[in-house]
Amino acid sequence: MRLTRRELLLGGTAAAALGAAGVYELVDRVTEAPIRHFGEGRAPEQHLLDGLRIADDDGVEIVVPTLHHQMVTATVASRPGLEEQASLEQVLRHLENKHPGTPDGLAVTVAWGLPYFRGHVSGAAERHLPVDRRASASGKPRRALLDAIRFPSDPDDTLLEENDLAFLLRSDNLDHIQEGAKTILDAMDGVVEMTSIRKGFAGGGFDGGPGLPKQLATAAGVPGADLIPDGSELFLGFTSTQRHALGPPRIVNFETLGLVDLGPDSYFRGGTHMHLSHIFENLEAWYLNFDFAERVDTTFRPRLPVEPGTKTVPQPPEKAASPDDVASDFQRFGAIGHSSSLQPSSRLQADVMGADGTLYRKGTAVPQRADFNTLDNPFFWSGDPKRDGMAEGPAAGLHFVAFNPSSDDFHRNRLAMDGLLPDGTRIGLAPRARGQGLNSVLRTTHRQNFLVPPRSHRSFPLVEVAA
Ligand code: HEM
Fold this sequence. Notes:
By secondary structure, the chain is of the alpha+beta class. The protein has one domain (5-466). It has helices spanning 5-9, 14-19, 26-30, 82-98, 114-120, 122-128, 133-136, 174-187, 212-220, 283-289, 292-299, 323-333, 338-346, 385-388, 407-417, 463-466, and strands at 54-57, 60-63, 68-76, 107-112, 131-132, 142-143, 159-160, 165-171, 192-201, 260-261, 272-281, 352-353, 359-360, 368-369, 372-374, 381-382, 397-404, 442-452. Strands 7, 11, 14, 15, 17 and 18 form a six-stranded mixed beta sheet that branches. Strands 4-8-3-9-16 form a five-stranded antiparallel beta sheet. A hairpin with a 2-residue loop joins strand 1 and strand 2. Helix 4 runs antiparallel to helix 8 and helix 5 (114-120) packs across helix 6. It starts with a helix and ends with a helix. Protoporphyrin IX containing FE (HEM) binds at residues 234, 236, 238-240, 242, 245, 279, 281, 299, 315, 338-339, 342-343, 346-347, 365, 367, 369, 398, 400, 413-414, 417, 438, 442.
């Protein structure tokens, strides 16, 4: 059953697209009512959800992501002042009073792009935007928020976006997300202009059943959907949120690892950095050109002994790969794994006593990924369809979202994924070569870096300082 874009979208205008579910309303028809969660979900950090469930697969702990995700990007229409700041804060608090910040409630994260800081609060930003100490060590001071860059395995036409802000909405209930997005954008009518809506899903098969990626890709008639293993968390067949491969809650806060200088008043304490990108995934190339062992080699590490059909492959701290491990894998097998090539940059290389008083052991993961699969092509809705390359019909992809302590920290991860390791080791694989981890079946179309303020400064940050 191939869906036309019309059926996929079920609505033309931005407002209609916000309220529309399209193919994603199928999710609620194919999944059970979610388990009730505990807690309020009102941590000072916007990127933290309360009550995330921990599941178990073959003895490996998995952080269960929310079923639904939506990202709305926008630009600021007019010079924001205290009034705009107050009305955004008011609508966010209204939603918080209505829904707990847990998977069965609604979690909203507001992130701000460099164009906002340059265009609307530049003086205050000069004083308060955090500085990346590690990235500044080589000379000129570098901010924790940098412009996005193209990576070696990115096609030349990867768009580096210039949005002022982005809203990330997460929940197990689709209607909470639609209500949240519509309530915020209605309240911000005339203040912000939407530039894109991106929708997606993850998981749904940890307690049995085919899971959302398989069900939705099949419902949409995406080529290769039938090859997706039942129950897998993502289209490419492997669990990507095992607890050991995700940073612990506060490790990505600007202040925790001491990587970032928060400036005179620590205005952004409790804040973090978010990277957003859209990646097309070629499912047929993945499942037809790579057998199971090769998919494990490519996703995790060459020649890792894994039982056929396994979806969750343990990646404990003590087994994190070093640059030498990655280099010797390449020497011996002519290939690098996605996880193993990332680990020299995504895992702590030594014990660190965090500013929050937690001792983070060597091998602990740092980035917190919140990525979700999608059928958007490449977006559910775009304010500039030509620029964004909007195309007909559903397409398998991933809206990649990751929280890191800084842009430079994310850039280090992404460069490592291309074999450029943080210690200077260079893996001689051509961009998107078959041996270069997952890259050969991925194509990135859009990228941008954002700053995620603490909850206390999430609405038009620094406007009150600039006023
Ligand atoms: C379609 C694209 C992608 C897919 C399907 C994917 C899938 C995965 C999977 C299955 C894992 C193993 C997780 C685990 O051990 O639980 C993983 C780990 C990871 N991925 Fe990706 N990934 C993708 C893109 C990216 C991108 C673009 C980045 C950016 C840097 C990235 C960063 C990471 C990191 C940091 C880890 C954890 C590594 C570690 O510390 O063990 N991934 N990914």
